[in-house]
Design brief:
With 353 residues, this protein is α/β, with parallel strands linked by helices. It has helices at residues 18-34, 51-56, 75-89, 100-113, 130-138, 143-149, 250-259, 267-271, 302-308, 324-328, 337-352; strands at 5-8, 11-12, 15-16, 38-44, 61-66, 93-97, 117-121, 123-126, 156-162, 167-171, 179-183, 200-203, 235-239, 262-265, 292-296, 313-318, 331-334. 31% of the residues lie in helices and 23% in strands. The protein binds flavin-adenine dinucleotide. FAD binds at residues 241, 266-267, 280-284, 297-304, 318.
Length: 353
Amino acid sequence: MSKDIYVVVEQRNGNIQKVTYELISEATKLAADLGEQVVAVLMGYKIADKAQSLIHYGAQKVLVLDAPVLEHYTTEPYVRGIEYVIKNYEPNIVLFGASSIGRDMAPRIAGRVHTGLTADCTRLDVEVSKYQEYLRKATNLPEEKIMALDTSDRNLKMTRPAFGGNVMATIVCRNYRPQMATVRPGVMELGEKDTSRTGEVVMVDAGLTEADMNVEILDVVKQTKKAVDITDAKILVSGGRGVGGPEGYNPLRELAAELGGEVSSSRIGVDSGWIEKDRQVGQTGKTVHPELYIACGISGAIQHQAGMEDSEFILAINTDKFCPMMQLADLGIVGDLKKIVPALTEAVKAYKA
Ligand code: FAD
């Protein structure tokens, strides 16, 4: 019988990526609802020492696939590794980060194990059965008791934006196992690390060899420019079409530097080649939760809001006082950003002096 929630760990050069910890944190909540365990699947070479950190975030068990062919991410050996785990351990649910690696692996694995995949999820819940609904209405039983009384119909509800972000679609996979989803980085809440947690580490030999490689790695070239991770920034100064061009981001950079934040952008700035893709906020960009989000010349299209609406405080600077961003904002300044942003920078400098 299919059982437990498996999280496919994403590591780069031995560093576990934040999305993995977010997924483990979310999986622990789902596992509590289902009465199942969280199992992390860690793949790489000489990687077993990283297993403990997965346990500290809530994995009860870590399956480690350690092989020289897994030293660098390549599609085929990694896909075979997860395929082996699914066929031999029969998980109920398998979760991947919706990163470039997760998006590469997950659909191939779904095809090979003949199940469905919901890509780019922004929310996961456990379905409640009709029996549970009845118990909730007709009795005073506590929630844990109700969940424990019935294990039927507990499918995973996988929610993702559809039709250009205009509706949220909730998808269930009733007839096939495992239920598989990729989840967007930055969406699920990161739980607390607890070094007193203990768990089991199991070395798994999936029989992966050089013969599983269908490409040859000749050289690994590291990106010289450090990629920015806007999802970690506490303050974001974000620009849209209203900045007018690539140089229009310079005043935003100055303000961000004064505030100790980062610059981000709407998709228009990225598509126009004004700013790097890794700074895009929104449905097809990154999901951010900064303490302060300053939206400069951004109208607030639904696809942009999808990536920033949970910011703690939103300041909108826009010439159009009726635009959606003004409706969403905690505070709005109506006017030309070319005057307002430099004035804000000066005000921050004066405050700090
Ligand atoms: P606009 O909507 O053109 O708004 C520009 C704003 O600037 C206006 O409100 C205007 O009043 C203001 N302005 C102009 N001049 C000034 C000035 N001098 N001072 C102050 N204000 C000024 N968009 C994203 O951002 N992220 C995504 O991830 C994303 N994904 C998408 C996915 C799909 C499938 C689709 C269909 C669209 C997606 N979009 C995304 C695009 C989105 O629909 C909008 O087109 C985009 O967000 C608009 O960007 P904007 O607000 O910068 O530009």
